Predict the 3D structure of the following.
Amino acid sequence: MARFLLAALAAATLTVVASSHAKAQSCTPQSFDGAWNGEVTLCQNWDAEEQQRFWFTAQGSLIIPYDWFLFLEQADSTTLFRDGGHMDGLRYLPQKPTDLNPDGLPIGFTKDVTRRRKPYYAISKSWLGITCAACHTNQIEVTAGGETQRILIDGGPTLGDFEGFADSLVDALDATAADSAKFDRFAAAVLAKQDVRASSFRKRSLKGRLEQVTEIRRAWNARNKGQHPYGFGRLDAIGAIFNEVAAVPLDLPNNHHPADAPVSYPFLWDTPHYDRVQWNGSVENEGTGALARNIGEVLGVFGALQYARPFGNRTSVDIRKLGELEGLIATLKSPQWPEAILGEIDRRPEIQDKGRMAFDQYCRDCHKPTNTAGASIPFKAKMMTVAKTGTDPRMAVNFATRMNETGKLEGKPAQYLRLLSDGKKLKDPKDNGINLLSYAVGGTIVHELIFDLPATLKAIKAGRIEERLASDNRKEQQLTKRSIRGVPTREAIAAYLDKPDSGPGCDPTKEACYKGRSLNGIWATAPYLHNGSVRTMRELLLPARMRAEKFMVGSREYDAENMGFKDAGGFELDTSLDGNKKDGHEGPEYGSEELLNDPELLNALLEYLKTL
C-alpha cells in the first residue's frame, strides 16, 4: 500500500491545491507598488497586497545572514551584490521598497529566521531566505519604437540563473574575506546596522562567521553541481532536494549525486485541479501531499534539517507560512494573452475552429483544459512512460533509481513511523532515495503535528478543494479525538497520514514517467518541454529534427509570432548534452508531420493556444 509519505516525494517548487475563491478577471495591465522599471501585472485574480505576500512571505530558507546581504559587495567591485542591475542580470526581478519589502529585495527574496536550528542560530538570528516566488514569477518584455513594455507573470517560470546566483554569492563572500579593504567596509556597515562598535574583537568574530558561512554555501554548491551549467530558467531541484536530505543531516558529506537533470520551473496556476504534480507526477495533491512537497522544496533551497527521534525531525521550515502561501496560490488564475501589448489574436471563426480541431486531435488527450471559471473540479493527470513521450529521460530516471547511504538511519522505519512502514526499514548500506526523502519529509510533519497541531492541520488544508476537504475533516476529527492533552498519539498520527494507493498509470517511483497537464496560459511559459530544450511553441509542434540544436537563453524579449523568447541572451543551451535533449513529443499522435506540411493548420493551432 502506497503511503502518504511516498506521495510526498518532494518538490522543486512550491505547487499547491485549490480553493473555490474567485474574483473578477476584468481589468487591464497596470503598474504596482515597488515596480522597479515600469513593469505591469496582468489580471490573475490577485490584488496588490496578495502579490506582495506571495513575493515576500518567508518559508524557512537560510542563505546568509540578512544584514550581510544588505552590505555585501560583488566580488570584483564595490557595487553591492543586491544591486538592481546585478540581480536583473541574473534574471531575478529587482523591486523598490514597500511595506512588506522594506529593504527593496528582488521578488522571492526575504528576511527569515532560524527557529534555533544548528549551526545557523549561533551565527545570526535573521537570515536572507528565498521563497517560491523567486522561481515562479516570470517577466516578458516587448520593445517597439524604442520603448520596452515589461509584463510580470505571477506563477510563471522564472528565467533566473539560480546556479549563477549561488556561485557568484560564494565568489563575493570569498573576496570579502580575502580583501582587507572590502572586509573593513563590510564589517563597518554590518556592525553599524547591528548598533555595535566595530572593535577588533567584533571584527575577528565577524570574520570567523563569514568564513564559516562561506564554507556552508560552497559545500552546497559543490554537492548540487551537474555535468554542465544549467543556464537561465533551469535547475535540478529534485536532485538538490535528494542531496540535502542525504548529506548534511546524516553527516555523510559524500552522500550526494550529481544534480544533472535540470528542468524548467513548472508554472503554478491550475495546480488546484491536479491529482498529481511535478514533471514526473511524483507528488499527490491529496492528504498531506501539498504540505509535504512544500517542505521538500524548502529543504532543497537552503532549509535546515536535523534527524531526531522520537518526536519527529527538526527543520527551519515555517509550517504556518507554507499554509499561507498554499492558500494564496490556490486562488491564482492563468494569465490571458495581453492583446494590447503582444498583438491581437486572430479570432476569425474559421481560424479558431481549425485550431480547436487540431488541438482536439493532437493535444487534448494529454493536455485536457482545466476549468478556468474557478470551479473546484479535480483533474486527473495523464501519466506516460518516457518511452511513450520520447523526451529526455534523465530527470525521471534519476528519481526512480536514486540510491543513498542510510548512515545513522539504518534500520529505522522506512516511512518514519513504524505503523506506516509495513515492516520495511531503511537498509544498509544503501536504500532508495525516495525512502530517505519520505523519511525526511514525513518526520518533519510528525514533529509539527506533535508540537503545533492546530497550525499544521490548517496548513495541510490550506486551499483544499471542497471535494477533498470532506475526507480531510473526517480524518482530522479522528486525529483530535485520539489525543492526550492536545497531543495526538503516534497511532493516531499514523492513521491520519495513511492513505490507499491511488494507482497511477505509470508509477514514477518504479519507472521513468512524465505527466501531461493543462495548457492554460501556456504562452507565458517558454522555453518548452520539461527541461526547457525547445525555444518556442512553434518548434515544439514540429518534428524534433526541425528544432534548434543550440539556442541562446536569457533574453526576456518575447517572440509573439512563434510563442517563446527571442534567440538571445547570455547562455547557449546545447541540446546535444545529456539532460538537455530536445527529442520526443512528436509522431502521428502529436501531428508533427501534418503540422509541418500544413503551415496554415500550424498557425491556426498557435492562434487557438493563445486563447487558453
